[in-house]
Amino acid sequence: ADRGGATMQNPVFIPGPTNLPEFLRKAVDMPTLDHRSSAFADLLHPAIAGVRQVIKTREAEVFLFPSTGTGGWETAISNVLSAGDAVLAARHGMFSQRWIDMCQRHGLAVEVVEAAWGAGLPADRYEEILTADKEHRIKAVLATHNETATGVVSDIAAVRRALDAAGHPALLLVDGVSSVGSMDFCFDDWGVDIAVTGSQKGFMLPPGLAIVVFSARAMQACATAKLARCFFDIRDMGRSNAAGLYPYTPPVGLIAGLRLAADSLLAEGLDVVFARHKRIADGVRAAAGAWGMPLCARSPDLYSQTVTTICTPPGFNATGIVTRAADVYQTAFGTGLGELAGKVFRFGHLGQLSDMAALSGLAVLEMCMADLGLPVRLGSGVAAAQEVYRTTAVQPMKQA
Ligand code: PLP
Q: What UniProt keywords apply to this chain's record, in alphabetical order (predicted)?
């Protein structure tokens, strides 16, 4: 395709799939390996062990399905619930909405708590509802850790506290698709029962793996759950995992890549990785402030470190910025989703991103906004981000 004279592939600024680090791109590109041989077990078991460490669990079961985050949602609900079961969920963005929709299509009775798109999960409302549910009709509580549509992170520990305060035995099912590996996720400490993520976000791999983690309680619930499941049945996957096998043909390259991705995150140090994402995100947020554009996330405690959702002035079509960036400057950003369509654009900063890349993304956005007549001074957002990056550089330049 004509790339407008561009001679290099630009980084992407979408909130997943992320830019691929070169060593992971190479790891995924491997010769065919017999997945019935012990060589496959040598890839699978360390990949599973690595996920356990990244998600901070000692003993939970890890399942790797050839799928995506959406398949991970389906794995979670279909293995522990039965048709007609009540489920508690908050709707505060497009991804929490899609998981609710999936539950409804599976015949679950979803009690939906409406919250503003830009607000976090209302754990206090959860506590009231769980406390009132004396008969324990609610079998599962859903939580979206990082709403990729709004750029909002929610407090999962608070959801666990709500369950405990109500003395309620419902399982805690958490969508960590756009947080795990980039933001702290404490599976054991938060008392999570099922966590879901995918290969193409914090693990910086191509899409193709649903990564799903089950607590001992979730494993027990699987024995009595009656929702139909076959491809995503963790009983088949669990038996195979134990033998170092797979119930069907595994995406071997992705599993090899997952092992390396987890190793690299752990070698860098999870706290260092999380701080790196926050620092890049701080620069992007500073740029939005310089442009006079509010964030969708309503308060700093809700700021996502993996995606920033920026509101454009009323009456302006925010999608025009994303379209122009793609068509004229060959650079990808995220559009507004659902009720935010046309009102916001999204800057994804998860996975591998440098100061230089983030600054170039901000510069492209400024060109698009100026082209489209928004009163944004070229360089203003870039300068604000530069101030953040130069004052927080990990190895500041020594003064002469
Ligand atoms: N949940 C969240 C928070 C997401 O951001 C996404 C995708 O962006 C999904 C679920 C769905 O994942 P997938 O597109 O991999 O099926």
A: Aminotransferase, Pyridoxal phosphate, Transferase
